[in-house]
Specification:
single chain, globular, 6-stranded parallel beta sheet, about 230 residues, alpha/beta, Rossmann fold, 2 domains, 6 strands, disordered N terminus
């Protein structure tokens, strides 16, 4: 009779150097059942100290931080706490911030003009290890990534035919549900293919895999669809 339908409590750390922004984010996120803001930090150093002392699931982080770049902060968080997911929430969409942050290991990247309800969905999806990209961010990536022509080996050589199919659909912005429908398999099967594909490509998540596919021109840029929530 007691089916486990309750969602886990998602512990969030807000990292932004503006106190009013942190105050507003905390106030809104705390109104959503299942979300708990367990800490705030105005700089990367404070964020890392908090991550060292208490359990945190999702870091909601701006990129304009004092003393350390956003990309460097993300890299340190990922290195020290690989179980933690970083969702970038920023106003920057440019060469100096976007690609470095995603390459450093950000699971998602959304802009500060995001609707508050969509931000909640983005936090929840990030917790569930889904890649979240604002549509403008996906368009930016499609227009700005360049192929890694100096790569000595084909990074996709170990993928099976089905894993390659999943990668191409994923890079186009399809959800697991949509991929399952198109390939006529179960979502669990798609998740298994995604997991195997990430391991073989030696990338952290779907965002990194999609970026790699774009860099190597596995799909025409015209076929890349902006996506927001993965599921």
């Amino acid at each position: 009779m007691s089916e486990t339908t309750e969602t886990p409590e998602i512990k969030i750390l807000i990292v932004d150097d503006h106190g009013m922004v942190r105050f507003g984010l905390r106030g809104y996120l705390q109104t959503t059942p299942g979300l708990t803001v367990v800490g705030e930090a105005a700089c990367a150093e404070d964020a890392l100290n908090l991550l060292d002392t208490q359990p945190i699931d999702v870091v909601l982080m701006d990129l304009a931080l004092p003393k350390m770049s956003g990309a460097d902060a993300i890299r340190l968080i990922v290195q020290r706490h690989p179980e933690v997911r970083v969702l970038v929430l920023t106003s920057f969409l440019d060469d100096a911030h976007t690609l470095p942050a995603i390459r450093a290991g950000a699971t998602g990247y959304v802009l500060k003009d995001i609707d508050p309800d969509d931000l909640v969905k983005a936090v929840q999806a990030t917790y569930h290890r889904q890649s979240i990209l604002h549509p403008q961010v996906m368009n930016f990536l499609a227009e700005h990534v360049t192929p890694s022509s100096d790569a000595p080996n084909d990074p996709f050589v170990e993928l099976t035919e089905r894993e390659t199919e999943v990668l191409l659909l994923l890079a186009r912005g399809l959800t697991n549900h949509a991929i399952a429908s198109q390939l006529m398999v179960s979502e669990n099967t798609v998740r298994t293919h995604v997991s195997n594909m990430l391991a073989k490509l030696n990338v952290r998540d779907r965002t990194q895999a999609a970026l790699l596919a774009l860099q190597h021109h596995l799909i025409p840029l015209s076929e890349v669809q902006p996506y927001f929530c993965d599921e």
